[in-house]
DNA sequence: GCAAGGTAGATAGTAATACTATCAAAATAG
DNA sequence: CTATTTTGATAGTATTACTATCTACCTTGC
C-alpha cells in the first residue's frame, strides 16, 4: 500500500501552484538538482529552463524569483521533516527516544526511499545544509516572515521544543535549544565536508562522530540544572 | 598611551593592501557602513564608490570583488576578536573565567571604544551576524580555504578549543564545540532580532537571557561525562 | 465539432550588475 | 624635478533578472 502524503504549501510561496501541473512539478524537481549541482548563487532561471527544455518566462509564471524558489524548497523540506518526525515518534512514550529519532532524521542517516514524490531528498538535504540560511539572511526577512514563509520551520522548532519540554518540564530555552540544535547539525555537517579543521570529524568523514557530538551536546544541556 | 595594534592580513585577501593608503582605508571603513546599512546582497561597488566620492574602478584595484571584500572584513573581525581574547584572558588562570570573558566578547556586550582604528565595531559585528556565513557558503569554499582565507576563523576556533581543553582535558569535541558556540551565538542573536519565535528571547529583546542560554549550553556540555 | 479560456513556447527588450580597458591627471618618491 | 605609482574619468561588454507580447496549443463544456 502506498501513501501519498501531499504537502499543502503556503500560497504566498509561489505565483502558481507548482504541484498543480507537470511543468510546475518539473521546475521543483529539476530546481533541486540544479541548486545541488551548481549552487544557489550560480543558478539562474535561464539555466534551469535550458536544462528542462522550457523557457525562462515559463518559470517566472510559477515563482517570482530564484530566492522564492529556494524558500519554497526549504519550506517543503521542513514540512516533510515535521511529518516524518510525527510519524516516526508516533507511538513512542519516551521523549529521550523521540529526540534520538530526531537526530537521525536531521542527519538523514536511515533514509529508506531517497525519492519521495520524485523529489531527490539527498539533494534537497544538501541544499538545506548549504543554502537554507540564505532563505532568511536577507534584508526582507521581516516582510517574508510577515507572509508566513518561515512557518514550516517555526512549526518544526515548536514541535521539537514540545518534546524537549516533555523530557525536561520547565526548561526555559526550549525553542532556542531546538533551533540551535538544527543549525548546529547543519553547520557541523557543512564544516566536516568543507572546513574540517573547524570540527573534530576529520577525514574519514565520520557521520557517527558528528551524531555522538550533537547527542552529547543536546542531552547534557537538558540534564544539567539551571543555576542563576 | 595609545596602542595601535596593527592587524596584518593575509595578502590573498586583497589585490592591493587597503591599509596601505587613505583610499584603501576608506574602502574598508565605508564598506562596513554600507554592508551594515543596506546588506551584502544589495551593496555594489558602484554604490560604495558613489558614497565615497570615488570610482568603481578604483575599488576594483583593491578587491577582486564584493565577496572578497566581505571575506576581508570578516577575517579582520576574527583577528580582532582573537587578539581581544588573548588580551583579556592574559593573566587569568581559571579556564572557566576565560570562557566567561569569551561569551561577553562574542556578544560584544562591554565594548569600551566602539571605534577601533576608525572601524565601527558595532556595524562590523552586525555584518558578522548577518553576512559572515556567506563568506564560506559558496561553491568556491575549497579554493578559498586553500588560499587560507579562513585562517583567522580557524585560529580563533583553535584558541577557544585550547581553553576548552584546559577546562576539560580529554574532551573529544573541542573544535566542534568552539565553532558551534560561535555560530550558535550569532544565529540566536539574529533570530532574536528577526525571527524571535525561534528563540526564547522575545520582546523585549533580552541580550542577557541569550547570554544565560549559551552559558548554560556551553558549561553543561563541558561538565557532563561522555558515555559511549 | 467548435468556441472560450487558460497554459506554454518563442522572441524581444530593459535596467542593473559585475566587471575590464584605457588614458590622462595628480600625487609621491627618489 | 623627473620617474613611477595611484587615482579619476569615461567607455564598453557580458550576464543577470526580470517584463511584455504574441502565437500555438490544449482542454472542457456544450
Short description:
Chain A is mainly alpha-helical and 228 residues long. Chain A is 63% helix and 2% strand.
**CATH level 1 class label of chain A:** Mainly Alpha
For the report, how would you describe the main beta sheet of chain A? 2 strands, antiparallel
Number of strands of chain A: 2
Name given to the CATH architecture of chain A = Orthogonal Bundle
Structure annotation, total helices of chain A: 10
The H/E string of chain A reads HHHHHEEHHHHH
The structural class of chain A is: mainly alpha
Mean pLDDT of chain A: 94
Major protein interface: A-B, 53 and 53 residues
CATH fold-level assignment of chain A: Tetracycline Repressor, domain 2
C-alpha Rg of chain A (nearest Å): 18 Å
Beta-strand content estimate of chain A:
under 5%
Number of self-contained structural domains of chain A: 1
**CATH homology superfamily name of chain A:** Tetracycline Repressor, domain 2
Distance between the termini of chain A: 54 Å
Helicity level of chain A: 55-70%
Shape of chain A: globular
Which parts of chain A are unreliable, with pLDDT below 50 for 5 consecutive residues or more? none
Q: Largest sheet of chain A, order of strands side by side? A: 1-2
Oligomerization: homodimer
Q: Can you tag this structure with a few keywords?
A:
globular; homodimer; 10 helices; two-stranded antiparallel ribbon; 2 strands; DNA-binding; 228 residues; mainly alpha; Tetracycline Repressor, domain 2
Amino acid at each position: 500500500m502506498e501513501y501519498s502524503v501531499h504537502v499543502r504549501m503556503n500560497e504566498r510561496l509561489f505565483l502558481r501552484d507548482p504541484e498543480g501541473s507537470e511543468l510546475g512539478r518539473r521546475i521543483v524537481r529539476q530546481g533541486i538538482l540544479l541548486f545541488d549541482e551548481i549552487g544557489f548563487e550560480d543558478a539562474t532561471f535561464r539555466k534551469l529552463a535550458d536544462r528542462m527544455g522550457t523557457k525562462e518566462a515559463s518559470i517566472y509564471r510559477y515563482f517570482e524569483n530564484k530566492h522564492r524558489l529556494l524558500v519554497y524548497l526549504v519550506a517543503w523540506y521542513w514540512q516533510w521533516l515535521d511529518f516524518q518526525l510525527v510519524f516516526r515518534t508516533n507511538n513512542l512514550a519516551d521523549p529521550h527516544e523521540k529526540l534520538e529519532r530526531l537526530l537521525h532524521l536531521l542527519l538523514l542517516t536511515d533514509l529508506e526511499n531517497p525519492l519521495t514524490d520524485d523529489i531527490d531528498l539527498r539533494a534537497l538535504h544538501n541544499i538545506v545544509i548549504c543554502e537554507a540560511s540564505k532563505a532568511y539572511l536577507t534584508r526582507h526577512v521581516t516582510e517574508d516572515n510577515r507572509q508566513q514563509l518561515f512557518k514550516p520551520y517555526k512549526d518544526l522548532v515548536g514541535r521539537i521544543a514540545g518534546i524537549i519540554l516533555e523530557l525536561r518540564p520547565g526548561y526555559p530555552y526550549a525553542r532556542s535549544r531546538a533551533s540551535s540544535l538544527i543549525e548546529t547539525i547543519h553547520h557541523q555537517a557543512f564544516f566536516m565536508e568543507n572546513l574540517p579543521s573547524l570540527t573534530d570529524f576529520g577525514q574519514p568523514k565520520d557521520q557517527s562522530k558528528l551524531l555522538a557530538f550533537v547527542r552529547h551536546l543536546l542531552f547534557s544541556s537538558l540534564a544539567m540544572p539551571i543555576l542563576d
